[in-house]
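FORM 7B: Structural annotation worksheet

SECTION A. Query
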Amino acid sequence: MKVIRSDEAKALNRHKESRSYYQLDGIELCLVHSTISDVVEPDFHAHPFPEIVICLEGSISVQTLFATPLTPGDLVYFEAGEHHRSLRPSPGAKLIAIKLGPPPRE
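SECTION B. Predicted structure
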């Protein structure tokens, strides 16, 4: 077992969102904490690496072919390259997204 403490992560804070990047035995991941402040519905998009989204508070729907609602404790896994989007978030919904890959290049 290996533990990475939060103060060891590279953090990037954005409004209503906080990102931390971790590297462990050659595996890179990005942990994103988000609080939904606006009812914004992004276009379909995909990531080059797998992504896990966990609903902590409120509700949100995710869509690939069909929309599926998520409530607190629900988890969804997207394969690398799988097109998806979020729909109908409740204001103040809190999510964690785990992106299994390196951070985006700036």
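SECTION C. Observations
The two ends are 32 Å apart (CA to CA). Confidence is low (pLDDT under 50) at residues 11-15.

SECTION D. Sign-off
Analyst initials: ____
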